[in-house]
Design brief:
Order of helices and strands: EHEEHEHHEEHHEHEEHEEHHH
Structural class: alpha/beta
Oligomer: single chain
Radius of gyration: 19 Å
Strand order of the largest sheet: 5-6-4-2-7-11-10
Strand content: 15-25%
Number of helices: 11
């Protein structure tokens, strides 16, 4: 029997750039993009065409920013999706490769951010678990200074994006992927947890360190996003088959800073390793 044709619509570099301009993406702006390639339809050229279309819409003076998280560079004792045997933990901690912005792949954020990460001229921030990559003239201003003990707070690219008037584009992605909401977690009373990860030791050998970090979680971000969209101006449209949203980073952060203390219970802030493995935390675990 003949195979079924691929699901549409057909999306090309040119049609994607045109739809983004229709949505309101402006040449020269800075755009933080969370994306889902599969949601767009049949993309001629795949992730490469999507990145080209985004860059076309932004123009040579615009800057494209994407999350390039590597949450698997973390303590195996905290992994739950899936867990690994406890007897493996010492060996994992002793041999896990340390973060290298040039070669460490992104994980759990999709093929489009990974394509940006490897794009000629791309820059990447320094945090070993929650880095961002960027293309464009403001890439360095956004990414430099990402502190190793500040995943998504005041010394991360999110704060620089907020300060610069950047906007968020959810390109087929939901509000549960909206990293801007995490910046609000650093501005309200939030638990601090110990986070382990690999580092380069003496002579470039593997080492291990533990730092104190604000606990972040995307728990209930879908509800937060629905209320945000109800109460604040969010541009909605379609690019290919993907539902797409466009809004300022600063609006999202300010709204989340008011919403989270009112809607998250204390139980939702208890670290996962204490209450059990039922809920997923951010960044993604291996």
């Amino acid at each position: 029997m003949p195979e079924s044709p691929p699901p549409g619509p057909l999306v090309t570099r040119g049609s994607l750039a045109a739809k983004l301009r229709d949505l309101g993406v402006e040449a020269g702006e800075t755009l933080l993009v969370h994306s889902s390639l599969s949601s767009l339809g049949w993309v001629c050229g795949g992730a490469v065409a999507v990145v080209q279309g985004l860059l076309d819409a932004l123009g040579p003076d615009g800057t494209l920013v994407v999350p390039t998280q590597s949450g698997d560079l973390s303590d195996p004792a905290q992994w739950g999706h899936p867990p690994v045997p406890e007897q493996w933990w010492p060996a994992i901690r002793a041999t896990m490769p340390a973060y290298d912005p040039r070669i460490t792949p992104s994980r759990g954020v999709g093929v489009i951010p990974e394509t940006v990460r490897t794009w000629p001229g791309a820059r990447r921030s320094a945090h070993p678990q929650t880095s961002f990559a960027a293309l464009g003239p403001r890439a360095a201003a956004v990414l430099d200074g990402h502190a190793p003990d500040c995943r998504l707070g005041e010394r991360s690219p999110l704060a620089r994006l907020e300060e610069s008037g950047a906007r968020v584009l959810l390109l087929g992605a939901g509000y549960d992927a909206c990293t801007a909401f995490h910046l609000a977690e650093y501005r309200i009373p939030s638990p601090v947890v110990e986070a382990g990860r690999p580092v380069f030791g003496a002579g470039g050998t593997a080492g291990w360190e533990v730092v104190s970090e604000v606990r972040i979680t995307s728990e209930r971000f879908d509800e937060l996003g629905a209320d945000f969209e109800r109460d604040r101006p969010v541009v909605r449209g379609r690019v290919g088959a993907a539902t797409t949203r466009l809004f300022p980073v600063a609006d999202a952060v300010a709204y989340a800073q008011r919403w989270l203390p009112l809607h998250r219970s204390r139980e939702e802030w208890i670290p996962e390793q204490v209450r059990g493995p039922a809920r997923r935390t951010s960044p993604p675990r291996p």
